[in-house]
Amino acid sequence: MPNDTRTLTRADYLSDEIYELERTRIFHGGWMLAARADRLQPGNRTVVELAGESVLLTRDLDGQLHALANVCRHRGARLCDQHTDTGQGSLMCPYHAWTYALDGRLIATPHLDNDDIDKAAFPLWAYHVREWQGFVFVSLAKQPPDFEAWMTLHCSELVALERFGFGGLVVAVTTTCDIEANWKIIVENYQECLHCTRVHPELVELVPVYRTGWVTDHARADGGVTLSHGYSMAATDTSLPILPGIGGIDAQSYFGGTIFPNGFIDVTGTSAIVSTLFPKGPTRTTMTMEFMFAPETIAAPGFDPTPVVEFNELVAAQDNMVCERVQQGVSSLAFTHGVLSPKDDLVINFVQHYLATRGPVV
Questions:
Q1: Cβ(280)–Cβ(268) under 8 Å?
Q2: Which of 127, 147, 205, 343 has the most CB atoms less than 10 A away?
Q3: Per-domain residue ranges for the chain?
Q4: What does pTM read for this prediction?
Q5: What is the CATH number of domain 31-144?
Q6: Cis preceding linkage at 123, omega within 30
Q7: Cα(152)–Cα(167) distance, rounded to whole angstroms?
């Protein structure tokens, strides 16, 4: 591999024009990771912002999942602002009280009778939604790519970890942070460990192979790396039980992978963490981290995920700091592009994949 492979350009990290291409061709033209399904029990609704588009995720009283435009059909008011656990089968616009069923049907229009408005003609605009192993994916495209083909092409690292039974896990803790950096800088940072000894001293104690600068262990064919102690991604042994059905080397290892375009999955023998990126423009990203465990682990007396949460929040804060420094640096007029080394192999793969998916700037 040549030692002068280029990074993306200054414009790729800063340009409003390129961000609009990403919105059209990647975020809104394909499938985006949106949420964990267990957050949505029957009667619940939540709001996610998918690259500038506010989407209302609902689960109706029959248990069916829906993705709807978060905008009233009457005068365009935003319907909801946050997650709501009402258990009710409807939602009401705060402006004129037009009321919709959780599947999007318009069911009430106060002060108007049936001759004034044809309710059947004005359901909420609907998007495509799919659930895979408890992960909710949304496509805003009128004719989205085939979901299974998308998963095979763009989310193969997640699919390869299906044996961990993500569909049976439940979110115990959710954290959110804002990062003043382009979403691609965050993904690229995740894909390499040349920074780990300097930025993550606690992490390299837990994962010794990271001291080499490689992000994977080339002596292993499964993509995992061995933990130095315990079964959790935490500074100390948490004594959390192993995930159901997991044993052997899987239980003593850490596995990571990207969920293109906007997520990561981090798995150990006791838990899984999904990090979802919500781009807010070319230079700002919101990230949620959802910490998942087996439901019987959460229900057990004395369950305490604090060591896992605190350790991973520490590593995330360290990463966010250097990602913001990169964003500041690539904003320099002097920066045209950087270079990638052989140990940046996963970054190179991501850059090539991103460019192929985005297509040319014309």
A1: no
A2: 127
A3: 1-27+148-362, 31-144
A4: 0.95
A5: 2.102.10.10
A6: no
A7: 18
